[in-house]
Structures are given as C-alpha cells and as structure tokens.
C-alpha cells in the first residue's frame, strides 16, 4: 500500500509540473485579446477586455489564481463560449472516449491473434502478408488513411456514413453513439482509422514476443511435459508476453485519446480533439489549459492502472512491492 | 542386447530393455549445409539402469535426448534410425501419440533449473497441468499427487511451496521441482540433460543420490546426459561417449573408465583434474572440437588424435573389442590408464 501511496504522490507532482509547463506555454503562443476584440477597437476597449479576462495581472498571479481555482474544481471559463472550460470538455469527452476505447479494443482483438499467428508460423505467406500490412499500418499518415476510408467505404461503396456521431442514446445522463445501430455505423470508420496504427504495433509486439518465447527453455519443458500446443501458447507463452503488451496498450490508450484530433477532424467527430483545434485557433486559453490538464490526468491514471496490472501479471513485481 | 558376465547388477530378471536406439541420425538442414548433429547412434537402456551419455558441448548429446522425445524442431529432423521404446518405434508415431508419452511414460529434466520453470505460473499450476495432461482426475487428486511428488524429492512443507512462484525457490529447489514434475506419472524412462551442471557441488551430490534412489525404486530407466565423467563414474551402470555426433565408445562404466580404448575417452579421463599430479601441468586434449558443418572425413577425432594414421581418413567401423563393449576406432589404445 505504501507503494500505491508513493505512486499517487508522484502522480500529483507530475500533474503540478505539467500545470506550470502548460500555463507558461500557452502564454507564449499569442495574445487572445487580439483575436477576441474587433480589429477597430480602441485602447480603452482593449484594456477593458484584458481586465475582464484577468489578463492584466502578472503571469505568476494568473497562475496562482488558476491553481486556487483548480483546487475548487474550476479550470477557468472559456473566453469564447463563456462556459466553464471543464464543463465544455466534459460534454465532448464521451464522444472521444467511446472512439478511443473502441480503437483500443480493436487493436487488442485484431492485433493479438494476428500477431500470435505471425509468430507461430513466421514463414507462411499469410504471416508475411500480415507483417507487410502492418508496416503500412503504422507508416501511412492517419489523415490520409482516414480520407481513403471515406473515399472507399462512404463515397464509392456507400456502405458506411463518414461524418458525425449519428444517432445517440442516453446512458447515465450522457449521450453515446455505441448504443444505437446508426451510431455504431458512424463509429466504424473513425474507430478503424484510429486503431490502425495500434493494431500494427500490438501485432508486431505479439509476434516478437511469441517468437522469442517459443525458443525459451520453459516452452521446451512444457512441451516435454506432454502439454497440448494450445496450452503452451495460450497459458505459458501468452501470460509472459502480456506484460510488455499491457504496457504498450496502456500508453496507446493515452495517445489515442490525445491524438484523436486528426481522426476527429477528418470524420467531423464532435469530440475533444475537434474542440481543442477550434480553441487553439481562437487562443481560448482556459479551454486549452483545461484540455491539456485532462489529458495529463488521463495519462497518469492509465499508467497507474498499468502498473497495478503488472502486479497481477508478473509475480516477481508483486514480491518487490511487498519488500 | 549384450549380457555382461560378472557385473555388479543384482539380477537379470529385471533387465528388460526400456529404450533401444538403432542407427539414429538427426540432421539440421541449414543454408550452410546439413549438420549431422546425431550420426548413426545406437545404444540401449534397461529397466532400472542408468546410462551415462558423455561428451563435450555440441557433441549431440542433447539432440539425442530431444530426438527420443520427438521434440526436434525444424530445420532439424530425424533422418534415419529407429527409437524403440518398449518395443514401439517412436519415429513412426504421430504427434498426438508422442504427446501422450511425453511427461507420462518418458520424462525429461533440463540443464538450467532457472530457465525451465515458467516464471509467471505458480508451482501448483505447472505441476497440476502435467497431471491433467495424462490423467482424468479431479483437481483435488491432481493437487494431492503434486504435493506427494514434491515431498518425494525432499522439498520441505510441500503444501505451502505449491502455491509459490519459481523465483521464490533456490536453484537446487527448482531442479527438485523439475524432477518432481518428471516423476508425476512414474515414467519408464527419464532423460536427464545435465541436470546438475548449474548447481552447487553439495546440491549436485544430493540430487544425484536422490535421482538414483528414485530410479531404482520405481524401476525407471535413466539416461544421464553430462560432460562430467566423475558424475558418470558415481551414477551410471553403462556409459556411451559421444564425439561430433557419434558414439565412439560404449560399455560398462567400470570397464570403460578403467580400460578406455578410444583415444578420445583416454583424453577425457586423462584431463580430469583430480587424476593429475599436483603441480604438474593439467593434461588436455590438443585442438578444439571441430564445427559440425566442417567435420574431417572419416574419424572426426583424427585431427586431434595422436594415434591417427591414413586409415583414419575412412569411416571407422563399429567393433566389439570385448564383451559388452562397442568401439568406433582403427587404432584403439589397449593399455590401461595410469
């Protein structure tokens, strides 16, 4: 438990350090007042706007006010929407989350079996095709793949819709696309687009792990015990290689949320990514800061979760934590 | 096979042959050519007896063991020969039938106990899955059998140790676990591939005594693969000396060690440190083990052999220079070792 406490304190410091970097960074990229006031506004109007937005104070004071706000759960109000930034992000978060979760699930259910096959029969033509395909998977730019998916499946074949979330249904007071047929159809293309790189990554990692571990003594010993090939692969080998795979999936989950920006833009998916792009365009500082804080928080939380999963998967890690 | 008059074995009533290997050749096809890892090897082990398979690393000892279990992976394959296990030719069996024998009638113990157990599975999982692989029993029954096997190899408080992970055991204890797994189905044959090499000398002696006792009690035939002649001297009934994929000499331990005939066996015995006088230079076999890809024609040992002449460029035939002995040499050394 002391281990968990130590990790939580560490996480707190990471978040704190990020607030400083984000706050200073956002201040450097430009003055929002120039964007927000009409170009013909005079000096007095400009000064009034600065006071209204709290930008007349020195940077350190702005930061301390921000920190104070954070402690009360207030990450500032959007200059543009005049809504609390956190609430604004919260309204877009479910759309991004369902896309990200679907993409990660896809990379697991597609990537791991394909990787196992490619690791088991590395010389078969199918394994070679999978490996060649995986190179395309992570080397083609996401936006281009997204456009191609729209071209083929939406424009040419007309099978799937290409924009928006489609019909949504409410669960726990939040609108979700995955609960309706139409919404699911709308999710397929963007989720696939987002998942493609991760499928390739998980696949290659699984293949490398299977190939490496099949050579190890414990596999030969397991076979010498008379175990079936299925048990050797699914229990002995997989439990060992799940450790690196879980790490990568955890990291990927974070980046899928953070970098859904491109996919959301291509598919006009009304998630956080689209919000942040719009906010950067108009230098809506509170929203940018709040968005980055949410992302940092998610990354830290996911990593903590991955570390906890390690202790389930690897008994050697468990022992160290007890000591 | 051959009968040995006046040897120390108690009776011949028990002497049915468990494993008879005839002309076994296991080859690996590589881009650089065919590697004859095992080349025309013949030997046999009887019930309750111990055969020491001796040779340097790369001489084909381990591949011989894996060939018996049918665990030679491509590009390796059994190119010729018969492996008769209680009369059945294992080279003719399908994968499912072989799997039914592995860990059940034929068990194997590996060299490095740190590597053979799966680090992320508990000992009980690794033992009980072996029980389930060959017997339809309840979980409770499998657990009891596992516990009893651990107790049999001298692991204290086996109930508790069953729920431990391999890293919580010392090397010697892990090897005992591996031996317990090998004993779970009371096999007819155990292949032990240098199981004590990675252990301390004291642990080594304990394990040797333990395995010897267990094999004797259950009438298990044992093939002990090793590079250590002193282990063979203390443990085995018969010894087969391998060099570059071939058995060069084979016979009763007492006779082979006292009167080695092949110059290679001579060299091996001569280079055991305890035989050399203190302060004198350690005797050694000149040269290095040749690469299996690039073996000399005829006798593979001739480039390192002081007895070698032109004859040795041909393949030496297998001869029986004495009763129960087998030799593959044109110029055997006949004087006893000093």
Automatic annotation (TrEMBL), chain A:
The protein's matches in PROSITE patterns, at most eight in alphabetical order, are given as: ABC_TM1
Q: Enumerate the UniProt keywords alphabetically.
A: Cell membrane, Membrane, Transmembrane, Transmembrane helix, Transport
In what residue span(s) does the ABC transmembrane type-1 domain sit?
93-306
Note the topology in the membrane. Multi-pass membrane protein
Membrane-spanning residues where? 12-30, 99-120, 132-155, 184-203, 241-268, 288-313
A GO CC annotation recorded here is:
plasma membrane
Query: What are the GO BP annotations of this UniProt entry?
Result: transmembrane transport
Gene3D superfamilies given for it?
MetI-like (1.10.3720.10)
Give the InterPro entries listed for this entry.
BPD_transp_1_N, MetI-like, MetI-like_sf
UniProt-annotated location(s): Cell membrane
Q: According to its UniProt record, which protein family does this protein belong to?
A: Belongs to the binding-protein-dependent transport system permease family.
> What is the protein named?
Peptide/nickel transport system permease protein
Q: What organism does the UniProt record list as the source?
A: Chelatococcus asaccharovorans
Q: What is the lineage of its organism?
A: Bacteria, Pseudomonadati, Pseudomonadota, Alphaproteobacteria, Hyphomicrobiales
UniProtKB/TrEMBL annotation, chain B:
Q: Which GO terms describe its cellular component?
A: plasma membrane
- BP GO annotations: peptide transport; transmembrane transport
Q: Which Pfam families match?
A: ABC_tran (PF00005), oligo_HPY (PF08352)
* InterPro entries in UniProt: AAA+_ATPase (IPR003593), ABC_Ni/Peptide_Import (IPR050388), ABC_transporter-like_ATP-bd (IPR003439), ABC_transporter-like_CS (IPR017871), Oligopep_ABC_C (IPR013563), P-loop_NTPase (IPR027417)
Top-level taxon of origin: Bacteria
Question: What subcellular locations does the record give?
Answer: Cell inner membrane
Recite the UniProt keywords alphabetically. ATP-binding, Cell membrane, Membrane, Nucleotide-binding, Transport
| UniProt cross-references to Gene3D superfamilies, sorted A to Z | P-loop containing nucleotide triphosphate hydrolases
Primary location group = membrane
Q: What is this protein called?
A: Peptide/nickel transport system ATP-binding protein
Provenance organism: Chelatococcus asaccharovorans
